[in-house]
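Extended Data, panel c. Modelled sequence:
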Amino acid sequence: MSQTRTLKVRVTLFFILVGIVLALVAVVTDHWAVLSPHVEHGNGTCEVAHFGLWRICTKRLVLGASKDKSCRAFTLSGEKNCSYFRHFNPGESSEIFEITTQKEYSISAAAIAVISLGFVVMGTICLLLSFGKKRDYLLRPTALFYAFAGLCILVSVEVMRQSVKRMIDSEETAWIEYFYSWSYACACAAFVLLFPGSLALLLFSLPRMPQHPWESCMDAEPEH
């Protein structure tokens, strides 16, 4: 592999590595979405919630005198109460989330995220093996595994988005306002870095194309 192509591969791998870190952060944190109820009075308390793929956390906020009907921007009063979703840990109590969202959506988003991490592990194994002498061809399966990981992250993001939408539209929930938080942004950024970066890595790892019409890929001189 030429020095120019090696440099391109290294730069591409750097962006892919950043995407992997962002994907890991998104999967293990619980700030995908923040939910808040409608507030009729300016004084009192309201309960907001933020959740991720595995658990939900609720906080009780103190409302001050304000014309704003949303309680998401007010000062926190009290401790955060977190619990894992009941379908992941039957011993935990999360009745609110269990009732107001689609259980299948939550399980699907988490399962797809785990599959994405599996592709990341397989791609990393191929990448480490490709560092050996004359093993540049392993960069191609590395790129494919990372591309599949990026696609899985994208699907997980969409499933989570549908889950939040179902929750807000449900008549059984008090949550009527929501916004996506930094974990969700990390997942989106992970896809943006992983998928295009993987395609670029695949292109850079392909063998040199013939320089003359009468040559085949096998006839072309190897790069030094």
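The chain is about 50% helix and 15% strand. This feature is highlighted in the accompanying rendering.
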